[in-house]
Amino acid sequence: MSGYGQQGVSAANIDSIRPKKRLSIGVVGSGNWGTAIAKICGENARAHGHHFRSKVRMWVFEEEIEYKGEKRKLTEVFNEAHENVKYLPGIECPPNVIAVPDVREVARRADILVFVVPHQFIERVCDQMVGLIRPGAVGISCIKGVAVSKEGVRLYSEVISEKLGIYCGVLSGANVANEVAREQFCETTIGFNPPNEVDIPREQIAAVFDRPYFSVVSVDDVAGVALGGALKNVVAMAVGFADGLEWGGNTKAAIMRRGLLEMQKFATTFFDSDPRTMVEQSCGIADLVTSCLGGRNNRCAEAFVKTGKSLETLEKELLGGQLLQGAATSKDVHEFLLTKDMVKDFPLFTAVYNISYEDMDPKDLIIVLQPLKEDSENEGGTETE
Amino acid sequence: MSGYGQQGVSAANIDSIRPKKRLSIGVVGSGNWGTAIAKICGENARAHGHHFRSKVRMWVFEEEIEYKGEKRKLTEVFNEAHENVKYLPGIECPPNVIAVPDVREVARRADILVFVVPHQFIERVCDQMVGLIRPGAVGISCIKGVAVSKEGVRLYSEVISEKLGIYCGVLSGANVANEVAREQFCETTIGFNPPNEVDIPREQIAAVFDRPYFSVVSVDDVAGVALGGALKNVVAMAVGFADGLEWGGNTKAAIMRRGLLEMQKFATTFFDSDPRTMVEQSCGIADLVTSCLGGRNNRCAEAFVKTGKSLETLEKELLGGQLLQGAATSKDVHEFLLTKDMVKDFPLFTAVYNISYEDMDPKDLIIVLQPLKEDSENEGGTETE
Ligand SMILES: O=C(CO)COP(=O)(O)O
């Protein structure tokens, strides 16, 4: 069955692989995660010159910024200073990363398109790229979350794939943009399992991202990788409620374990996910652990219990307008589970929804952790020997 | 393959199972974990009167203590006050738990023998019990750690089994004695997979321990359960070194993931362990998470980096003379791996040994986290497009 290193391939031996052609990398997005990813792509484009063309185009939504006392265009400043002074200040990107204000140029020139935009923009951005994509191009989505609609749960890689008619994989892991940008070691997971007609080997995709400080494992399981980054936020909220109640470390470990198993169950029940992905890869267990130790969802959920303020208020106070992903995802998941009549099969996800949106008492999380019993317990039975 | 709840059985429906006979429970040990376990056994003996005889005998190593200004015997005080005033003060045990100063009486009267003594005493305690065991009796070892000798790695359940000629399972999980004693919710794992001639179903064994606040999953994989509790200490030290170096959350999550996979690999390579146990059950992932968040090994390893003091000094200062399990286990494991010529297959375990006993720099843990490369990286290749 599974074992250490048995699932997945790394980019470790990329230089012994002879590629069919040198590929161009384009990055769609330039927020703090987008810029950190573009920096990595730029480093690898230079490091693996027989695999990649050096120039990495990064689409930047053009803005006027104040730079050294002057009003300047963000792309111009980036291309001069090799620094995204607005969204990733203090981090130097290699000079082969070029900021491009027109996403259509990125679309036209890339064989590998890396998507790192906030999920609410992805459809509109793709609309502008339609018809411009190179033959044989593929996408990699670094967008965490899932798109839920009446038709069900869709991965953003699926959204991109449908819009642009290309194969799209996923990258997700225990990766905080600023830590990655500062080259603090972390791991990540790529899900990439293209149909036969796609001519780019998975090692080459891994080599776009793998750095000495950013260790990539590439697996076939696209759905597992995408769902890990979405669902872990729900579990991080459950652990946050436990933090708020000052429950012990063992109780929190139990919530994490049960949450991880619900993540795995969700991915294997509704998608064709490999059960090992969630429990063994960075996109599952490791991302969950990081998020449960003081990530955004965790902190908001803790404050929810401790302060009695509403989640909307805390979202404003603690996240500066960012969406509290875990709560929103618990709602999406809940509505989806209702349509499948499977609410009771995901008691922890359901509890997070009920605490966040209904008036379930966080203390009742304990009840959720009990195994289902068919009978109530026969407390105080025979007492003689 | 695996999925939520698919590995293992719980005691949830114990009251619908009709047992062949009522069994007697004996607890060998009465330290703080031993007493917490005896409390649980006592509660379950009363709750499931058709499964168990009410009286639970707990072997107490007799000592004179000072109690309410008088010199008294520890067993007498326990049987009067239903409290282990020396090792688990402030916690009331049910009155059907009886302290017994003679381990032979416990041996003679129990069908289920629960072992909770410090590992260094287990052989001598068993020696006193030889020849007194009831026909059909089984053991459950709650002793964390492994016994390493020239012949290899042995589980304490194997030691007990050989000494007493009984089948012996294992209980281990994310369980801190004081939290369990105070009935803070946690989960645990039992490994119990007896040969056919043993007539006690695994649900009945699970029911000895399962409480509303102590949730048991019973699996077949005895080795995985036993090894989880031993090997997680090694990984907790690695995370402690990272804490000492003030590495980020993602780096620590990567160390935990890699450590968990080494635990799984060790258990599946040298024992017949199910790979799911380590990554899905409380005895693996959950116990590891708790231990990495400020457990003893974690704190000592952090202090080792921050203070520059030796581990022996820190053992004295921080653990009051208790053995630093993680360091000792890393040494045992290292010596065992040398005999198998497999040191390089367990780079994280090996690094913990080398940092603890040789003079490896903790910072070089990063190197260990890199995937093995066959070639050095072709940094600075072609740069033109
Ligand atoms: O995605 C992240 C880590 O990988 C960020 O975590 P939070 O959203 O929990 O802050």
Report what the structure shows.
The structure is a homodimer of 385-residue chains. Chain A folds into two domains: 11-220, NAD(P)-binding Rossmann-like Domain (Rossmann fold, 3-Layer(aba) Sandwich), CATH 3.40.50.720; 225-369, N-(1-d-carboxylethyl)-l-norvaline Dehydrogenase, domain 2. In chain A, the strands form three sheets. In chain A, strands 5-2-1-6-7-10-11-12 form an eight-stranded mixed β-sheet, with helices on both faces. A two-stranded antiparallel ribbon of chain A has the order 3-4. Chain A is built from 16 helices and twelve strands. Chain A is α/β, with parallel strands linked by helices. At the A-B interface, β2, α9, α10 and α11 of A face β2, α9, α10 and α11 of B. The site of 1,3-dihydroxyacetonephosphate (13P) has 11 residues of chain A, from α11 and α12. 1,3-dihydroxyacetonephosphate binds next to α11 and α12 of chain A. Chains A, B: NAD(+) binds at residues 29-34, 121, 144, 177, 296, 325. Chains A, B: It is found in: Cytoplasm. Chains A, B: Its main location: cytoplasm. Chains A, B: It catalyses: sn-glycerol 3-phosphate + NAD(+) = dihydroxyacetone phosphate + NADH + H(+).
What features would you highlight for this structure?
16 helices; disordered C terminus; Rossmann fold; homodimer; globular; 385 residues; binds 1,3-dihydroxyacetonephosphate; alpha/beta; disordered N terminus; N-(1-d-carboxylethyl)-l-norvaline Dehydrogenase, domain 2; 12 strands; eight-stranded mixed sheet; two-stranded antiparallel ribbon
